[in-house]
Design a protein that fits this description.
The complex is a heterodimer of chains A (362) and B (266).
Chain A (H helix, E strand, L loop, with lengths): L5 E10 L2 E11 L4 E5 L6 H9 L6 E6 L2 E2 L11 E3 L11 H11 L4 H14 L15 H13 L5 E5 L7 H18 L2 E6 L2 H7 L2 E6 L2 E6 L1 H6 L4 H6 L4 E11 L2 E5 L5 E5 L1 E2 L7 E6 L4 E4 L8 E11 L3 E8 L4 E7 L13 E6 L5 E4 L2
Parallel strand pairs in A: 3-8, 3-9, 6-7, 7-8, 14-21
Antiparallel strand pairs in A: 1-2, 1-4, 4-5, 9-10, 11-12, 11-15, 12-13, 15-21, 16-20, 17-18, 17-20, 18-19
Helix pairs in contact in A: 2-3, 2-4, 3-4
Chain B lengths: L10 H27 L16 H8 L1 H34 L5 H13 L2 H15 L5 H25 L3 H9 L4 H12 L1 H17 L2 H6 L7 H11 L3 H29 L1
Helix pairs in contact in B: 1-12, 2-12, 3-6, 3-9, 3-11, 4-6, 6-9, 7-8, 9-12, 11-12
Classes of the chains: A alpha+beta (362), B mainly alpha (266).
Amino acid sequence: MKSPYLHIKGIRKVFGPIVAADNVELEISEGEFLTFLGPSGSGKSTTLYILAGFQDPTAGDILLKGASLLSTPPHKRNIGMVFQRYTLFPHLSVGENVAFPLKVRRLSAADIDSRVKRALELVRLEGYEDRMPANMSGGQQQRVALARALVYNPPVLLMDEPLSALDKKLREEIQYEIRRIHQQTGVTILYVTHDQEEALRLSDRIAVFNQGKIEQVGTGPQLYASPSTRFVADFIGDSAFLEGVLTEISEQGASIRFADGSAISGVPVHGNAIVGNKAELMLRPERIELSCGVPDGRPSLRVTVEDITFLGNNTTVELSTGWGSKLAVRMHFGHPLISRIARGDALLVRCAPDTAHVFAAG
Amino acid sequence: MLLTYEKLGAWRWGLAIICVVVCMFLLLPILFICALSFGSSRWLIFPPPGWTLDWYRELFADPRWIGAALTSAKIGLIVTAVSVSLGLLASIALVRGKFKGRSLLRAFFLTPMVLPVVVLAVALYAAFLQLGLNGTLTGFVIAHVVVALPFAVITISGALENFDPAIEDAAVLCGASPWEARFRVTLPSIQHGLFSAAIFSFLISWDEVVLAIFMASPTLQTLPVKVWTTLRQDLTPVIAAASTLLVLLTLALMVAVPLLRKGKKQ
């Protein structure tokens, strides 16, 4: 069997009583763009810093092309990294910043010049060689940092929330730049973020981190359409969770009954599902169908309109179920129903069972 | 803002007058001494009856004055080197270190700033009697480093606090060894702090008189001590000339530093 390009092998990191990374296992292929997505303190940055060599794992190994990286000190790992904070050397110009890794490697002056020029072209900052970092915007500084991290052709590029200090519009602009640079260079990128939109926009695959563990690894659509845990379902995309009791598990899926007696069946089920136990039904707001008709035998729930909020291209309708749970439905602009409903109306919620998920409680 | 200059109305004139008075209070003695050093009167009469450069000639002709100035410069430069080196090491510990009693240690480093200098001088004198350091260059340097170090620690740790350690990490990932990163990235990045610390340290030693009087011997005197002892013997305008030169050097350093820094940035 061919060994993977980069293998994060059972990494565990313990700080005193806190387990920051718990048996993190990942295989990354060459040229892949993989994102660690998770809330702060979920272990994604710890894993990245272990890769960079700034922290030693309590257990586990990092293999690059089959060889362990752990005994190599950080300055000899040849890894590129872009940090969350601005880390350009303040006393050096842009050109000198990008040349720094090459000067440390004692390349010839002519070689350095041509490589710096190419790296700055790659991030579209040609002609900025003599600028000082203090005279550049945050976005420009991070692009220079990217050029500095790529100029020595590292086998892996690490990016630790590099855009979190920028405003939304600039962030999106640079996200597209990063995608283009990834396609152009084919460099393997490990990217850390807590922003699901950023993860979905950039990555080939996403590893969702929670409490030091990887919950699920997959492409964006995979994670969105079939989350394997409640955490992933909650973290990626908007979702509503309705609590009920599992009444049946069959080949077609699970059945869940709610406090007002209504039930939905044939839903994919995840986790340690036991009939009779509590479970939660997850619905995506854009996959729910609202109607003011009468029940027609299809699985449906009775709801009351709590609030209607116009948000431009869509309108969000807040609903409450007969037993007091809340859920939201998103309707695109111009939906015929919007003008006919008002606060306090009784409606029916329908959903295709295969777009919903049941997560066993506990 | 509640207290803006524009909204003060008539109070503005009051403020302006206070400002002028304070400035005059600070500047007049210096201008006065400066004028006297060029005055032709041997008895420091003001306003001077005529103008002359005699006192400067006398000053530069006297090897004792020149010797004192050279001693001052020598002590000042050694104090600068020692104070900046120790200040850098102390700042690294105080800013980067994570140990118990860090804020206590910082306060300790700053105590010479608030301690009465005379108390410090008496204590050092007593201690140096045991060690045989009174009247020696070493004694002078140690005494001046004690008062210069707090300023070095304040300016260098200020610069270090503004320097993100992640920048050092970035240099290491770029391939620089940890020592290379410190020398090629961290030190140049805080150079303005080191520079200010050096200027402060030198000026403190250059101007210092109380400790110097205690440390001085007939053969080892700094310029301020020479001014002081001469002043007690006779009231010659040569003192005014020496004082003017002292002030001039201080002024030159204060002006040169921002200019040098500005030039570097461009």
